[in-house]
Specification:
The complex is a heterodimer of chains A (319) and B (408). With 319 residues, chain A is mainly alpha-helical. Helix content of chain A is 69%, strand content 4%. The radius of gyration of chain A is 20 Å and the shape is globular. Classes of the chains: A mainly alpha (319), B alpha/beta (408).
Chain lengths: 319, 408
């Protein structure tokens, strides 16, 4: 039973990471019907932004835990957000907006191009900046005293503090997003635009701005995920966005793309499936190497029997 | 206007290319100038390098490239092959067999390439063998430890497949048992194994398991992971249930480092042990401070304690490379020197490089000298005759040698 609860915690924390990234896919898709395949790279840039902030505040190694958690970590999250949101807005302005009237395939290909370009730019360019380490191989993430490598023991369970951070971040971000979308003027404008951009425009909504906000919100959450990834795995690298982005995209589809709560649920389900398949499927099929197979088989099953995803609503063709 | 811009761009590109080449050869031509002492046109032979110069494993790959460059510089300075000047042609294989095959095709087509040092990964080595064999170019790997590369797929009936393939390191069928013996000797009887399903990791774990169980140990869990994975929490929790006293991992440091860190984070406070693939400073960097007590085996005796290696280490430091020599630098240096040694005979009467390729392969089979890692000589399969191995332990943020043995 201990193993079950231990794995539940593992699955929750892994799923939270997927969920945080998946929200970015969903928010953008909900509004512009674009699958932003470069979103995984936004997540990666967020992590590098946080790392850069740490370099900029003088690479503090041994700050006491209150300073590390309440000053250094928020600064790093903020730095990551600025980098990620900046990149997302530039991307939206130059790679997607010019293609807004074009057939759906065009922005999709543009997204893949942006994804590869950003990866290579970080791989080749990051180390060229004086004082920055080369990003050609993994870079150790800053040590945040009080979180990195520490665990909380709850009876027989051991929970890494980085997992607590990840799960906590998902909870906070989901609550904030729920409030933002349902209670603010901009949030309602987003909802209106996602239902029908033309009518929304006629009602005086600045659709361009709404789209920019959607990209920015997704990027900010991806940056939080980037920091969570760094804390969890102790290192970041230029291609970390690819696989995580793919998994998060699967999570968004699983939950029902376009639905924010769906993205969170999809992320958690995917994390759980990966972990429990490793533990409870017997024989070699239960080895960790097969976990992606099970996760994607589940995705296919959901799409066959419930094409709108777990929480998605059936799409009604626009007249 | 357009045309002018075009020409300008072309000219600046050409200028840039010239500057780059000038930088690359500056030290070498300086060395040759002082050693050549005037007179006679010198011919050029190139020693190729194929190694991961970028990506996760670049720390090891760059160590290999720099060490070969060092050997070539020294050969040019001492005018080791009269009438000839050596150059290096380094290609990045990104640790991928396909990229490696392209690199080998490129070097094979270059008529001034006489032999190649590399690659790092056994899977890449497998891809290079037929290409370079077809071109008649010798390949000496400083790091391929998979036994099938020399002895063929059927290890019970060993048969040499490629006449042009040699290696300066020992193989996994020696390294795995050595690790098992080390653990048993220190009183560890229950071990969980994890590998990444690549040729190297799987071979290592199989050899380890065989020796470990045959000599009284038990394997509490045998797991596999994907080399791209970042999250090992599930697999660690599963392994933890069997209460192993150590975890033996078959794979390389980009995965092993984070795995060690997550193991300790999850409360599995036992050493992670691996082969030469995790014996790199990067492992400790990625694993963090909790990696103290982790173990690795590597081929040969510890480079910085060997008298024979001191000259190499000092020369490497003096050469001012920005990256360390890593796990295979000394082996790459010995590989390059084995080639240079063979070239002394094969190039002596040759008019051009291409015609000397076959003779070079034959001469490499006969070399015998004292290198940085010990005696360098090859057996009938192309394997190194030396079977010295060392176990290392992480202590105080560094790999420190724990035990060196000539393993039979």
């Amino acid at each position: 039973m201990d193993l079950f609860f231990q794995q539940l915690v593992n699955g929750l924390s892994l799923g939270s990471l997927y969920g945080l990234i998946a929200v970015g896919y969903t928010v953008v898709y909900g509004i512009v019907q674009l699958i932003n395949f470069a979103h995984g790279e936004v997540f990666m840039i967020g992590a590098f932004g946080a790392f850069t902030t740490w370099l900029a505040i003088g690479q503090p190694q041994e700050w006491s835990w209150p300073m590390a958690i309440f000053v250094m970590l928020p600064l790093m999250v903020l730095g990551g957000m600025i980098a990620a949101v900046g990149i997302a807005l530039v991307m939206e302005r130059f790679a997607y907006r010019p293609l807004r009237g074009a057939p759906r395939l065009a922005p999709l290909i543009s997204a893949i191009g942006v994804s590869i370009a950003l990866q290579e730019a970080v791989r080749l360019g990051y180390g060229l900046i004086p004082g920055f380490p080369s990003a050609k191989s993994a870079i150790p993430f800053p040590h945040v005293t009080g979180i990195t490598g520490e665990t909380v023991n709850l009876g027989a369970l051991s929970v890494q503090k980085s997992a607590v951070f990840t799960i906590g971040a998902l909870v906070v971000c989901t609550i904030f997003l729920g409030w933002f979308v349902n209670k603010t003027k901009m949030g309602r404008a987003m909802k209106a635009t996602s239902q029908d951009p033309d009518t929304a425009r006629l009602m005086g909504i600045n659709v361009d701005r709404v789209i920019m906000v959607a990209f920015a919100v997704g990027a900010a959450l991806a940056a939080v995920a980037g920091v969570a990834h760094g804390l969890r795995y102790n290192n970041i690298d230029f291609k970390m966005g690819f696989l995580s982005g793919l998994k998060a995209f699967a999570a968004a589809v699983l939950g029902g793309i376009g639905n924010i709560n769906g993205a969170v649920v999809g992320g958690l389900v995917l994390g759980m499936v990966e972990v429990f398949a490793t533990t409870y499927i017997p024989g070699q099929f239960g080895s960790s190497a097969w976990k992606d197979v099970w996760a994607f088989i589940l995705l296919i099953l959901v799409l066959v029997f419930r094409p709108q995803g777990l929480l998605g609503a059936r799409v009604v063709d626009r007249a | 206007m357009d045309r002018r811009t075009f020409i300008l761009a072309g000219a600046s590109l050409a200028a840039a290319a010239l500057t780059v080449t000038a930088c690359g050869t500056r030290t070498e031509s300086g060395g040759a100038g002082s050693g050549g002492s005037g007179g006679g046109a010198t011919k050029t032979a190139k020693i190729g390098v194929i190694a991961p110069l970028s990506g996760d494993l670049s720390a090891m790959g760059l160590g290999i490239r720099n060490s070969v460059e060092l050997a070539i510089r020294q050969a040019n300075e001492s005018n080791a092959i009269p009438g000839w000047k050596l150059e290096m042609a380094a290609e990045d294989d990104q640790a991928a067999p396909d990229t490696g095959r392209n690199a080998a095709t490129k070097l094979g087509g270059d008529t001034s390439v006489v032999a190649v040092v590399g690659p790092l990964n056994s899977s890449v080595g497998q891809a290079l063998q037929p290409v370079l064999s077809g071109a008649g170019i010798a390949l000496i790997s400083p790091a391929n430890t998979n036994p099938t590369l020399t002895k063929g797929a059927d290890l019970a009936n060993p048969k040499r497949t490629y006449e042009n393939y040699f290696r300066t390191c020992t193989t996994d069928d020696v390294q795995g048992p050595f690790a098992a013996k080390y653990l048993l000797d220190t009183g560890v009887k229950e071990v969980a194994t994890i590998h990444d399903k690549k040729a190297y990791g799987q071979g290592l774990v199989n050899a380890f398991t065989e020796y470990f169980t045959a000599n009284g140990g038990t394997i509490s869990a045998a797991e596999t992971i994907n080399p791209e994975d970042k999250d090992f929490s599930a697999v660690i929790s599963k392994v933890q249930g069997g209460n192993p006293k150590a975890v033996y991992y078959g794979g390389e440091y980009p995965v092993a480092g984070p795995m060690s860190q997550q193991m300790k984070g999850a409360g599995l406070n036992v050493p992670l042990m691996g082969g030469d693939g995790i014996y790199d400073g990067k492992f400790i960097e990625l694993a963090g401070p909790n990696s103290t007590g982790d173990l690795a085996t590597s081929v040969g005796a510890p480079v910085d304690t060997l008298d024979s290696a001191k000259a190499f280490v000092d020369a490497y430091k003096a050469a001012g490379f920005s990256d360390g020599y890593s796990a295979y630098g000394a082996y790459a240096y010995d590989a390059a020197n084995a080639i240079i040694d063979a070239l002394k005979k094969s190039l002596a009467d040759a008019n051009d490089v291409a015609s000397a390729r076959k003779a070079t392969i034959e001469e490499i089979g006969k070399v015998s000298f004292s290198g940085a890692t010990g005696d360098v000589a090859f057996d009938e399969f192309g394997d190194s005759k030396a079977r010295v191995l060392t176990a290392y332990k992480v202590e105080g943020g560094k790999w420190t040698p724990a035990k060196t043995e000539d393993f039979k």
